[in-house]
Automatic annotation (TrEMBL):
The keyword Nucleotide-binding does not apply. Zn(2+) binds at residues 4, 17, 175, 179. Pfam families: Adenine_glyco. It is an enzyme of class 3 (hydrolase). Transmembrane segments: none annotated. It catalyses: Hydrolysis of alkylated DNA, releasing 3-methyladenine. Signal peptide: none annotated. This is DNA-3-methyladenine glycosylase I. GO terms for molecular function: DNA-3-methyladenine glycosylase activity; metal ion binding. SUPFAM superfamilies: DNA-glycosylase.
Length: 192
């Protein structure tokens, strides 16, 4: 079975690639989680975060923004002691900050999904890359998303992080055209 070139032989990575990456995600809370996790990846590899995802879910109350937005300095200090996550104060504080901003966006748009998917007019962009080297690190759309998220007050949402988020959440299908997921996702979403 042919997969994208970036997938290693680690079972957690194979499962993530086959079942999640690039598949359109419309659940607002799951999108918030993914945006937070992509921000945690800054300066690290995705596998580093993926292996800790369950720990992050436990540590951050399953990414319930209403709960996270009320975290105190005491909770921050507790998280800084949690060996199951990346213990970086700026990143931890960014999740708390982003939860507050997320709640504001939810108020304005009714839900986060409508807001974030508006950058691609509510429909995934289907790319057609043959080699991993052809896939960009960012695009004009990820720059626009980054700019708007930053303007609203989100942290750790640069253009590269935003593009990785767009790929992960299926806003763009960047599976290589010879990867079995490429057409599988297209078929699931009935884009033809």
């Amino acid at each position: 079975m042919k997969r994208c070139e970036w997938v290693t032989d680690e079972p957690i990575y194979i499962s993530y690639h086959d079942k999640e990456w690039g598949r359109p995600l419309y659940d607002s809370d799951k999108l918030f989680e993914m945006l937070c996790l992509e921000g945690m990846q800054a300066g690290l590899s995705w596998i580093t975060i993926l292996k800790r995802r369950e720990n992050y879910r436990q540590a951050f109350d399953h990414f319930q923004a209403d709960v996270i937005a009320k975290y105190t300095e005491e909770k921050v200090n507790q998280l800084l002691q949690d060996k199951g996550i990346i213990r970086n104060r700026r990143k931890i504080e960014a999740i708390i900050n982003n939860a507050k901003v997320y709640l504001e966006v939810r108020k304005e748009y009714g839900n986060f999904s409508d807001y974030i998917w508006s950058f691609v007019d509510g429909k995934p962009i289907i790319n057609a890359y043959e080699k991993h080297e052809d896939v960009p690190a960012f695009t004009e759309l990820s720059k626009a998303m980054s700019k708007d998220l930053k303007k609203r007050g989100f942290k750790f949402v640069g253009e590269t992080i935003c593009y990785a988020f767009m790929q992960a959440s299926g806003m763009v299908n960047d599976h290589l055209i010879d990867c079995f997921c490429y057409n599988d996702i297209r078929k699931d979403e009935d884009f033809d």
